[in-house]
Structures are given as structure tokens and as C-alpha cells.
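Hi support team,

I submitted a single chain yesterday and got back a structure, but I'm not sure I'm reading the C-alpha cell output correctly. Could someone confirm the output below corresponds to the sequence I sent? I've pasted both exactly as they appear in my results page.

Thanks,
R.
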Amino acid sequence: MKRIVTVFALLGLLYGGAGMAHAALSFDFQFDTTPDATVTPPFVGTGTFSFADMLGDGTFALNSLNNVVFNFTFGADTFTAANIVSSSTSVTISNAQQNVIFAGNGGGPSGGSLDFRNDANSTFQVLTFDPIGGPLYQAATLSSPILAGTYGTSPSAVPAPSTMLLFGSGLAGLIGWRYRGTTKA
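Hi R., thanks for writing in. Yes, this is the structure output for that exact sequence:
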């Protein structure tokens, strides 16, 4: 029995710890109203962009990323991955600069690198990102732009829940093994 507990504890620690390198990557967004390449308060919108791949620096097709999640909020108006109307968007990740930029001709109706449309929103139905890969965005009604400004990002790695469960079970097994060994002595 002691060998079985030891084997499970070691497997949990080995595979759980190794799995943490494949955790999701998440970027937090802040939107201001000054289109000057610096993000300054007051912020009119916030959001997150995350995916399940742990990538280095480079440019990647948005549709090649796994488990993509978008959640942008401007007051009561929201934009999610279900609201994307662009057909092809590139994502440029710079870990050194700790940011992400959407680039390329996304093929959406607003001509941005990444276009969202949510007709259920009361104020802003369209969110579009700079087509030349800069840090600019526009939030608009269906007929005219209302907000234009700069967005900034900051990354944070998010461990996958199953990885943490596996790591935790291995750690619990080692603690149990150690505790069981001290009670019989």
C-alpha cells in the first residue's frame, strides 16, 4: 500500500508540475479616450483576452489558438468571442514588452484587424482594433464612431484547474505518506 501511495504522489507531482508550463495565457486590457499611444486614466473600458497556449514572442493566427476567450466591457456593453465578425486576424505577442497587438486585415465590416459586433448593446454595438497593428481602437454605434483611444495590456499566466488538481493530489499523497509513516513508529 505504501508503494502505491508513493507512486501516485510522485506521478502527481511530476505530471502536475510539468503541466504548469502549458497553462493558459491571459492579457488584461484597459481602454482610454486618448488616441496617442499611451494608456492614461480615466479608463472607459476594460477586458481580458486569454487562450490555452503558452507561446513565446511572435505573430500567430487568432484561429490557431486554443480555447480563446474575449471579455471586453464598456459600461454596460460587452463584447465576447461570440461577437467576432472578422474572418482572419493575427495576434502579435511580445513577452519582453508584456503586450499583445491585433494586426492584419481581419476582413470584418469595420475594416479593423479585429472587429466585434453586438447588436444587443445599448450604447456601443461595434468594437474595432487598429488595422495596422497599433494600440488604437474605436467603440461605435452601427452608424458612427463615439469613442476612439488607446488600449494597453498586461499578461498573467493562469494555471489550468486540472493541473492544479493533479499537483495537489500528489502533494496530499506525499503528506499522507509522511503522516502515516510517523503514526506507526
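A quick pointer for reading it: The CA atoms of residues 19 and 158 lie 12 Å apart. Let us know if anything else looks off.

Best,
Support desk
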